[in-house]
From TrEMBL, chain B:
Residues 38-126 form the Cytochrome c domain. The keyword Iron applies. This is Cytochrome c domain-containing protein. Gene3D superfamilies: Cytochrome c-like domain. It comes from the Bacteria. It comes from Psychroflexus lacisalsi. Keywords: Heme, Iron, Metal-binding. The keyword Metal-binding applies. InterPro entries: Cyt_c-like_dom, Cyt_c-like_dom_sf, Cytochrome_c-type_DH.
Length: 370, 147
């Protein structure tokens, strides 16, 4: 065997090894233990806490549950839920001024309008004394398709009271994410009543979807306000490799699918470019993909070793990822609750505990170490 | 030639009319199974949309997490369970090709037709073709229930 062939062989072996091996993440010697809080929701897709510590949790197949004082009760069957593939009832968000503004917000894949298939919708309802009423659709993306992919979706309020929502590109990367006249592959911004702020970046453009705040996204399933800077942070699924953390800027293009750190699922490439003028670079990108879902910043003193850092669920590798970062980027990654199951959602409760939605289980509470 | 067609049409017309008048006749719908090659082709599209993220492009799966569909003993030995898992989801421990997996796959919300197509795609790819498995039909999928 000549040297060329040998080095090619070495290169190939090295590449194959890198393809699935995640070399920059660490495993804990003493992992956290957990307590199961809800044990009968197959996919607890989204959660949000009231100030009294009670919380709402969505089940992907369309039900909304309310957990208070150890009891879990169903409070709504959300209508028109398109429970197919990645679609279903998705996120839930409580108005930050609750109970003065007694509103809760939901996103779901929706069958609404007379086309076959579904697309993502934003819904608002009133929540009082454990009762849901006045449910109303504020926004419905279109057109519907029967694709099972990339509905998003997460919700978050910023400090000025605007509501942000993510919608994935519905498995149509050549059509949706770079086109601001079409829904999908976008972060949207609304007023609390669902109306569209007139200073949205593309509001004045003819034919544009006026709710768009940023574009060029693939499928964002994590979104959280940074507790100090007030920025909206998002993570999104890449293809094979190239999941990203992005900090959302008004009117910015995040590049999908023109630039990406990933390749197709079948191993072929779809772009040579990882950077391009006029397109944002991610704050961090994952290769290999972890399939991130759910995101929270830890502000609590209950876990001093995590404080100030980011947590993201991994659907693919079935752990909670601890991402330690500073202004220079990500400094350290660790697996928490390793092998617990596909992690769908993560939230910090008002009393400082980390709650995690795990597929096949329900909701668990991660117990501090002391 | 043309002239002969007219009386023929009249005769047929007569029969059709009499049948319409007779309301006691009960029709059984004829189920025609999709051509296997077409089913495999349609199943490929379903696979790329719903399955590929976890089971990967060649059905190889991921060690200890997502069981392989490639050259899988489950497809031949647990045919009914295989179809059922695609139709309704699967939770808990299974053994595939001698290795144990314990995970949760939720129901994908596919139609019975789509379940049959994606099963045919998997059963005729990834090294499963040598097992020469019988075509999964719409009837077969429809007759599988959750319990």
């Amino acid at each position: 065997m000549n040297i060329k062939a040998f080095s090619l062989l070495l290169f190939c072996v090295g590449f194959l090894a890198c393809a699935q091996e995640d070399t920059t993440i660490e495993t804990l010697e003493n992992d956290y233990s957990h307590e199961v809080i809800i044990d009968n929701i197959d996919i607890a897709w989204g959660m949000d806490f009231f100030k009294d510590g009670s919380f709402l949790v969505t089940s992907k197949d369309g039900q909304l549950f309310y957990h208070k004082n150890g009891n879990t009760s169903k409070v709504a069957d959300v209508p028109n839920v398109y429970n197919r593939g990645q679609g279903g009832l998705l996120d839930v968000k409580i108005h930050p001024e609750y109970p003065d503004k007694p509103w809760i917000y939901l996103t779901h894949a929706s069958t609404q309008v007379d086309e076959e298939g579904g697309h993502t919708a934003l819904v608002r309802a009133e929540f009082k004394d454990g009762q849901v009423s006045n449910m109303k659709t504020l926004y419905k993306a279109g057109p519907n398709t029967t694709k099972g992919q990339h509905f998003g979706s997460r919700l978050e309020f910023d400090k000025d009271g605007y509501l942000f929502m993510s919608i994935g590109e519905r498995g149509a990367r050549e059509v949706n994410p770079q086109d601001i006249t079409r829904d999908g592959g976008k972060i949207y911004r609304f007023n609390e009543d669902g109306s569209i702020p007139e200073d949205n970046p593309f509001y004045m453009l003819e034919n544009s979807k006026k709710a768009i705040y940023s574009y060029g996204h693939r499928n964002p399933q994590g979104m959280e306000i940074h507790p100090e800077t007030g920025e909206i942070w998002v993570h999104e699924h890449g293809p094979r490799g190239g999941d990203e953390i992005n900090i959302i800027k008004k009117g910015a293009n995040y590049g999908w699918p023109i630039i990406s750190y990933g390749i197709n699922y079948n191993g072929t490439e779809f772009t040579d470019n990882t950077t391009m003028a006029g397109m944002e670079q991610p704050f961090y990108y994952w290769v290999p993909s972890i399939a991130p879902s759910g995101m929270t910043f830890v502000t609590s003193d209950k876990y001093p070793e995590l404080k100030g850092n980011l947590l993201a669920g991994s659907l693919k590798f079935q752990y909670l990822e601890h991402v330690a970062f500073n202004d220079n980027g990500v400094q350290k990654r660790e697996k928490l609750l390793d092998k617990i199951g596909r992690i769908r959602s993560v939230e910090q409760s008002p009393d400082g505990f980390i709650y995690v939605g795990v597929e096949g289980i329900g909701v668990v509470k991660m117990l501090p170490k002391s | 030639m043309k002239i002969y067609v007219i009386p023929l049409l009249l005769i047929f017309g007569f029969f059709i009319n009499t049948e319409e008048d007779n309301t006691s006749i009960i029709y059984t719908p004829i189920t025609q199974e999709k051509d296997l090659q077409q089913s495999i082709k349609d199943g490929n599209a379903i696979y790329s949309d719903f399955c590929i993220r976890c089971h990967l492009a060649k059905g190889e799966g991921i060690d200890d997490i997502y069981p392989p569909l490639a050259d899988s003993n489950w497809l031949s030995e647990k045919r009914k369970e295989s179809i059922k898992s695609v139709k309704y989801g699967l939770n808990g421990e299974i053994e595939v090709n001698g290795k144990t997996y314990n995970n949760n796959m939720s129901s994908m919300g596919l139609t019975d037709r789509e379940v049959a197509d994606v099963m045919n795609y998997i059963m005729n790819n990834f090294g499963n073709e040598k097992r020469e498995l019988e075509q999964v039909t719409l009837d077969e999928v429809s007759n599988i229930s959750e319990d």
